[in-house]
Amino acid sequence: MLIITGFLGSGKTTFLNWLLTQPDAGRIAVVVNEFGEIGLDHLLIATPVENIMLIEGGCLCCEVRGDLVQTLEDLWQRRERGEIQGFDQIAIETTGLSNPVPLIQTVLCDESIRDRYAMNKVITLVDAVNSPAQMKSYADAIRQVAVADLILVSKRDLLSPADDGVIDDLLLAANPGALRANVQQGQPIGMQAKDVLASDTHRTREDFLQWLFAGELQTRAASRSAGMPQHGLSTTKQFSLGTVSQSLGIESFSVRRSGEISSTSMVIWLNMLASLKGENLLRMKAILNIEGQPVAIHAAQTIVHQPTTLEDWPDESRDSRFVVISQGSIRRDFERSLEHLDFFEPKPADGGVIDPIAYQRFLSLAQSFGGNTAASSSTTVDTL
Q1: How far apart are CA 19 and CA 32, in angstroms?
Q2: Class of the CATH domain delimited by 2-196
């Protein structure tokens, strides 16, 4: 399943029309939505009408998520009954005014969808001319970029030489590790449909590592160019982007932490991170040293993907490493929370009483996020 997002006028429909005409794209079913009472985008999609499932009356990825579940269920049943041709892929085009995170969460967490569809990637279209102003004015424009696996930049040919580097700086601040390409008339330059449809970054080990390492290198380079000193915990190396991030209200940083982490600590920490900082957490990718094993983590806001154990470490280091993109500053709380990732599962002491030392460590972890234990119980993330 593809999620195609991007702000108003970024070229989503033009790109989708190109994709649907490519012989190596396979058969794609399309779900589109137009903000307002009457849907219009389906009239512009170059595919048979019986493969179009149009949701009207609101934003696909927030107000009418229940209708999305029903639409995908109906699409599957119609396919099984032979009422429509079989399809290899589903593309969901969101409205330009939408936050894609609730949609992603629905696809990943709803059991009826998860049993039949797999998330492939998030593709975000970016208008090179208007996106700088949009990203400074609309939080959802930033979120659309931050959650992308592939960013396609349209209208770059309309930029003046002086403005050409501005859009790249903004995209780097919002998503330092995403693959980027320019598009002309909807076609990504240097990419074929099979490249666009290739597996997403949190399911392919090499792509995951590429994103993580690129994020580390780019935040370090930005830190050095801004003359920013390294700082943080004695067990971490942390780097942050400078003025570009600040102008968007974005903080991008990378952290390393030495020592092993227990599997219990990982689950508790991820749930607290999503519950207490999910609103600000645009994206995080990490490799954690879980009891000596490398475990890949991918999170976006309240969504935590299933942790994946890698077959081997990517290099000589056994440090846990994190690349984080947040809206607003969470770096201090994030670093403080890493100090408390050293406790194991609290076990009842004599008489059935919880181990007071382990429980105190749990409380300290919750307090490091600026929250409390009651808040942690409400998390809805896919960690197990």
Answers
A1: 15
A2: alpha beta
